[in-house]
Amino acid sequence: MSDPQLSDPQSPSPGPNSGPNSGPNPFAPEPQPRQGLFARVMSLLFKPSETFDRISEEQDSVPAVFTGFVVPLAAIGPVCRIIGASLVGLGPWGAGVRVPWVWSILAAVIEYVLNLGVVFLLGFAVFTLAPRFGGRRDVLGAFKLAAYVLTPVYLAGLFNLVPAIGFLVWLGLYGVYLIYAGLPWLMKNQAKDSPLYTAAVTVCALFMLVIIGAVAGRLTTLGTVHGRASEGAPAGLPTAHAVASSASAAATAAAIADARALVAVMPPLFNGAARADTTTQSNDGLTMAEATYSVGGGSIHLKVSDAETAAKLAAATAAAPGGDETVETAGNRVTRQAFDATEKTGHYTIVLDGRISVEADGLRVDPALLKALASQVSLEKIEGLGK
Q: pLDDT (tens digit, 9 = 90+) per residue, 245-276?
C-alpha cells in the first residue's frame, strides 16, 4: 500500500495560480456524491483502499457517521440473535432449544448498546495509539476508522439467524485488513508503521468484541436454562409420551420419598464443588429436591423428582426439546440427553419406572460431567425410600 501522505493518486497537480490566497483550484476534481449506506458497505468490502481515500476527504462529523452508519448496522447482530435464539432455535438447524423471548430480547438490547459503545472505545484506542506509530491525533479520523472497520463484524451478525452456523461470525476478522487499509488515510501514519499499528488496534478490538460476545452469549444461555425453569419446564425431564411408553407407567399410585430424603441422595461434593442452593418441594403426589454445583467456569443444576404415578410426573413437566436429543431405553430405565456445543448447554436425565427422575442441567460445562453427576444419584435408593 502506498503512503497517502507521500502520493495521493487522486491529488491534482497544482495550477499556475495556486497558493494560499488563490481561491478555488480549477484543477481540482468535482466532489463525488456521498455514498448511500449500501454502496458504502459494498465499497468498503471490495475496494477498501479507494474507499478510505474517499472517506478521508469527506467533510463528516462524529454524530453524522454514528447515526448514519453505526446505528443501523450495529443492530444487525442483535436482531438476528433474537430471531435465531427464540424463533429458529439453538442446536443443529434449529432442532434444539428455543430461548424464551424475554431473554433473547434482553441479550439483544444489551449487545446493541455495547456495539454502539465499542465504536467510541475503539476510536479512543486508535486516537491514543497514533503518536506511537507515526500517526496524527485526529478525533474524527479515529472515530471514522473505528466505525468503518467494524463493518464486517456488523454483517457477520447475520449468521446469528441460524445458531448452528454461528461460528461463521469469525468472518468478521476481515475487519483486520480494513484497519490496515484505513490507517494511513485517516490517521496519516507512514505505511511502514501500519503493520504494528494494525496489530495494536486489532488486539484492542478483539478484546472488546470478545467481551460483548461473552455477555450476550451468557444471557442467552441463562435464558435457555432459567427461562424454562421459570415456566415450570426444566430441560430434559420426560414428556408425557415418553412416560406413557415406559414399561412401568402404571396407573396405580406408589409411595413417594420425602423431599428432604431426596436431598440426602444428592452428592454433597462433586468434582470439587460443594452442593449449594438446595431447595425442596412437595405437593399433590410429587416431591422434588434441587441443588446447584459450580464446576469450573460453569454450573450444573441437579433436580431429583419422585412421583406417585407417571402421569403426575408428566403433568408437572413440559415437553423436552427434540432434535439433537437422544433417548435410550433399557428395561424400566429411560435416559435422555442433549448438548449444544456452541452454547455449551445441555441436560442428562435418567427416568426410572416413568415416575422417578434425576436431571442434570448444565451451563458452560463438559457434557461428561452432566452424566457423571446424574449417575451418582441412586434411583433404586430413591425407590426404596418410598416403601
A: 443 443 444 567 677 888 888 888 888 888 88
Are the C-beta atoms of residues 283 and 316 closer than 8 Å to each other?
A: no
CATH no. for 232-385:
3.40.1000
Burial class (CB in 10 A: 0-12, 13-18, 19+), 232: exposed
Query: What sign has the CA pseudo-torsion 78, 81, 86, 87?
Result: positive
* Residue in the structure block whose three cell numbers are 480549477: 26
Lowest mean pLDDT segment, chosen from 204-213, 240-249, 301-310: 240-249
What residues contact 206, with CB distance under 8 A and at least 6 apart?
A: none
Digit-coded pLDDT (tens) for 137-171: 999 999 999 999 999 999 999 998 887 787 788 89
Q: With beta carbons less than 8 A apart as the criterion, state whether 112 and 174 touch.
A: no
Domain ranges, ordered by start, for the chain:
37-228, 232-385
Q: Residue 157: what are its φ and ψ, rounded to 5°?
A: -60, -15
